[in-house]
Design goal:
The protein is mainly β. Helix content is 3%, strand content 64%. It has a single domain, classed as Porin (Beta Barrel), CATH 2.40.160.10. The protein has a 19-stranded mixed beta barrel. The longest helix is centred in the N-terminal third of the chain and has 8 residues. It holds the Pfam family Porin_3. Belongs to the eukaryotic mitochondrial porin (TC 1.B.8.1) family. InterPro entries: Porin_dom_sf, Porin_Euk, Porin_Euk/Tom40.
Length: 276
């Protein structure tokens, strides 16, 4: 594949991951297993409040094809086929869910050294169509996306964004929610290995004159342990500790507290991922 500007969804992704990834207030247990034939199986159990759910995901890779199947405790089955290089510089993704017969979706991604174009079409009688395009380089990129509902004949979304990346930092601005929201983010890596970083994000919602400012960071205590924290202008403070207890197996302890309402009980989460 081309080392071009990436996908539109990559704009602002580094900041989003730093501020959201691995933060949880649930109890989650995951077990991963792999075979020499290219089959990977993931079993996940989640307890949220008093409700417990589970999911088993199986992935099989063969040459340029990846086959994914997920089955949850409610007997919902999600299937995804990913084909790489059916045509030069393309990736094709077909997905559907059972028993929802109208959930089928076909997505085609085209990668070029200076542009990426993605088209997704729902496989039903009144398909929704999503289209995104991004031009530039891995250093600076401009992109836009739009969604169109053929049933109502109206746009479901139209967004635009810009991203500027350097070896030690990344900045992005996204105009979303049909122009109602603007989000700017900045990530700065504090070491060459990018194991420690600082992040800031500012979101403005024009219809409500609401501003949200969030700052956070990631710090590697040692090769096995990292800590993350975030705080927004509404006083929501989140933190997590992630430790590799045995090779490739990670324990994550996270929590959230409202610093402006300390009488409320803090929320805590625990996640364990076991990998061979």
């Amino acid at each position: 594949m081309s080392k071009g500007p990436g996908l539109f969804t990559d704009i602002g992704k580094k900041a989003k991951d730093l501020l959201t990834k691995d933060y949880t207030t649930d109890q989650k247990f995951s077990v991963y297993s792999y075979s020499d034939t290219g089959v990977a199986v993931t079993s996940t159990a989640v307890k949220k409040g008093g409700l417990s759910t589970g999911e088993v995901a199986t992935q099989y890779k063969y040459k340029n094809t990846v086959f994914d199947v997920k089955v949850d405790t409610e007997s919902n089955i999600s299937t995804t086929f990913t084909f790489t290089e059916i045509l030069p510089s393309t990736k094709t993704i077909a997905s559907f869910k059972v028993p929802d017969c109208n959930s089928g979706k076909l997505e085609v991604q085209y990668f070029h050294d200076h542009a990426t174009v993605t088209t997704a079409v729902a496989l039903n009688q009144s398909p929704a169509i999503d289209l995104s395009a991004i031009i530039g380089t891995p250093t600076i990129a401009f992109g836009a996306e739009a969604g169109y509902d053929t049933t109502s004949g109206s746009f479901t979304k139209y967004n635009a964004g810009i991203s500027v990346s350097k070896p030690d930092s990344c900045a992005s601005i996204i105009l979303g929610d049909k122009g109602d929201t603007i989000r700017a983010s900045y990530v700065h890596h504090l070491d060459q290995l990018k194991k420690s970083a600082a992040v800031a994000e500012i979101t403005r919602k024009f219809s409500t004159n609401e501003n949200t400012v969030t700052v956070g960071g990631l710090y590697a205590i040692d090769q096995l342990t990292v800590v993350k924290a975030k705080l927004n202008n509404y006083g929501k403070l989140g933190a997590l500790l992630q430790h590799e207890v045995i090779p490739k197996s990670v324990l994550t302890i996270s929590g959230e507290v409202d610093t402006k309402a300390l009488d409320k009980v803090p929320k805590f989460g625990l996640a364990i991922a076991l990998k061979p």
